[in-house]
Design brief:
- The complex is a heterodimer of chains A (447) and B (195).
- Chain A is an all-alpha fold.
- In chain A, 71% of the residues lie in helices and 0% in strands.
- In chain A, helix 5 packs antiparallel against helix 7, helix 12 runs antiparallel to helix 13 and helix 13 runs antiparallel to helix 15.
- Chain B has 195 residues and is α+β, with helices and mostly antiparallel strands.
- Chain B folds into 2 domains: 48 residues; 141 residues, Ctag/Cox11 (Pfam 04442) (Sandwich), CATH 2.60.370.10.
- Chain B is built from 2 helices and 10 strands.
- Classes of the chains: A mainly alpha (447), B alpha+beta (195).
- At the A-B interface, helix 1, helix 7, helix 8 and helix 9 of A face helix 1 and strand 6 of B.
Chain lengths: 447, 195
Amino acid sequence: MNSVTSTQDTAAHESDHGHDSHHAHHGPAKGIKRWLYTTNHKDIGTLYLWFAFIMFLTGGAMAMVIRAELFQPGLQIVEPHFFNQMTTVHGLIMVFGAVMPAFTGLANWMIPMMIGAPDMALPRMNNLSFWILPFAFLILLASLFVEGGGPAFGWTFYAPLSTTYSGDSTALFVFSVHIMGISSIMGAINVIVTIWNMRAPGMTWLKMPLFVWTWLITAFLLIAVMPVLAGAVTMVLTDKFFGTSFFDAAGGGDPVMFQHIFWFFGHPEVYIMILPAFGIISTIVPTFSRKKLFGYTSMVYATVSIAGLSFVVWAHHMFTTGMPVYAELFFMYCTMLISVPTGVKVFNWVATMWRGAISYEVPMLFSLAFIVLFTFGGFSGLMLAITPVDFQYHDTYFVVAHFHYVLVTGAIFSLIAAAYYWLPKWTGVMYDVGLAKLHFLVFTYFR
Amino acid sequence: MSEPMSSTEQQVQQANSRLVKRLLLATVLMFGFGFALVPLYDVFCDITGINGRIYQKSPEKAQGIEGQNLVAPLTQAEQNNIDLSRSIKLEMMTISQAGGAILFEPIDKVLRVHPGQMAEARFRITNVSKQAKYVQAIPSISPGQAGLYLHKTACFCFEQQLIAANQQSEFVMQFYLDTDMPKDVLQMTLAYTLY
């Protein structure tokens, strides 16, 4: 299948650019065209990973601005409006530019190899879904230089901050989120089709590696919620520029409606960013414990139930919007319920290590740090889930700390672990273990 | 140049395009669902009354509905259906979103009302600008469920009001509380935002 598509591609490409059509053309195109026209899942995976790394550094630079300003109380370095732009764009870049593309990159690299497929099912769509991403982020970053500044309403862009009180750059923000959404949806469709149809003979559902399982479920979550996000930003766009009032009480709309729609996307989104991480940890821990993963089937069911529950907990982000008591109780109990399948996972990882012949290679170190620190993040989430307590914590740095525990020491640590685990396989070169261990010490010390 | 496809490869390709179509359809449906959430939430809140809005449609309709619904319970209420065993504290809040040009304040800041008893709250709107302005007040009631038991017989918020330049006007909101009001509601806040 792969060979068919790539020959077709090469033929099309040659007729477009007549110069090398007279001699047979083997292997990938040279230079930049190799990367622009590639339909190879490994090339595209590499592109995703590099892109995510660049975005990680960009978002990281913004985090530096934020932390430098917060070093002392009072105003030091930047204006409040610029500070708000930094927090907003930092959040958007890290979520949509770093974590999600990095996981998509890993999916591109690993899923075909893990299920015995020659390539992703839709190689050309794969190319497109990557190459629209840089444009989305160029638009987002360009919005910072627009008159009146970039988006400054937080990555959750609550109405009316993003409608009544935002600048003209909101249009750029909306379009860049649209493009990111289209890219993610195409990536997700590709993953589902690949896993559904392209498994090697004998690769039954319950023989798939957990990384493949977690990505399959993540892809379904993406298809379910990214369009809702696109809808939400479209409503913001029309509210702001075309006089609709979805979220404007003056015209019969409801600002709280925005939060309901946004968090219907937003909560599954956090599982989109953590489920593949669970898959990575479930791959690395058994390797360095020299044991099979404990409770494979329960891991699969836990993943499915986390994904299912993620659709009925959105309002735990909105406890203080004046919901009736029974709704608060419902969302509180559902949220606490998620800790059960998550606890199953942590238990299984620990049980996998139990009496294993553990060795502490770098990926294992990051995985162990993941298990401990992600559990901290999970516990702080449990604290936030308790409605009466959340009234005190709401909108405080406790929440910021909670999601940075689960995203940095969760998602990012698992990505680093995955990179160290698979880099030798990808490149054929072993990295410097001493430097990698130093990296680990620095990261865990300053987490 | 390309090798002929084997039948299994063709099957896989067919299966792929079928699945892609289904997934694209799912994407489009979910995009539609995002917009459908708006009326869905509205209907849900209308039934349960949980977002503190009072569901008056258009002013004429509202009066019609209110009129029909009210005649019977109102006379009943006036006759013998006033629940004297309890009274509910109502606090009035006003917010003006019309900039500095319009001032908006409650005259009766706090009322104590027995369920079933007719009551009225008065508000003052002042236009300090040099132009006449149309304003519209949007109510919000908390706790939300209690909003279901508040019946307005007349309200300046039913329609837009014209305030002449440099003029001060008083407006009245007439209402009664349902005797079915849950016992645990001891206090309500009526917030009006003026646009």
